[in-house]
Specification:
The protein is of the alpha/beta class. The chain is built from seven helices and seven strands; from the N terminus they run H-E-E-H-E-E-H-E-H-H-H-H-E-E. 33% of the residues lie in helices and 20% in strands. Helix 2 links the parallel strand 2 and strand 3.
Length: 239
Amino acid sequence: MPETATIPPSTEPPAPKPPLLSREVVAEFYLHGEGIEIGALHNPLKVPGHLKVRYVDRMTETDLRLQYPELAASPLVHVDVIDDGEKLTTVAAQSQDFVIANHFLEHSQDPIGTIKNLMRVLKPGGILYMAVPDKRYTFDRDRPITSFQHLLDDHKNGPAATKRGHYEEYARLVNRASGPGLEVEMKKLLDMDYSIHFHVWDKKALTEFLNNMQDPLGFDLVFSMQIDIEVLNILKKRS
């Protein structure tokens, strides 16, 4: 998903230097067969040529350009499947060797439900390749880390109860709206149904969250590493 907000000044340390591993190296090691990538927009994962990837998004390419005018000069991937990436209702169960979901989980209103649905479409032993930004190195740096209890509540009760609060926090701490302008900014984002970062983590909190969900959702966290501003995670569906 595009990251359009301006990063405010901060005393946080600069993003860590990239290690020898990269997205592409990890993909070559873990991915095989046929799968899907969700929300690739203008930045699809570069994968080995023997893999077959179909691209999933919630809108057509034309509508995506209306939603993200800042990408007007960027080529977008062809959308093969129009579907809500959090639900994947049109994708058959146990049909995919892999799912790629980079910078997607933070946009999910129910991350637990989202991972559950991504696991549903994977074959046993299939791979969820998932990069999530570390909030310390993005425009989310001033936002509080989403607690595990909040994630449980969003899954149990549905995200509608907390949606407005997420938009308020985003408008206030990312877009720097205040006073009467805060309500105006919130309404604009809500009316657009703009895909903000609903939930944010640093590496420690994200790893704890994924570790807590391994048994309930039936996967093993087989790889997790900070690579530049993001945490790259490999989740393997249990057989």
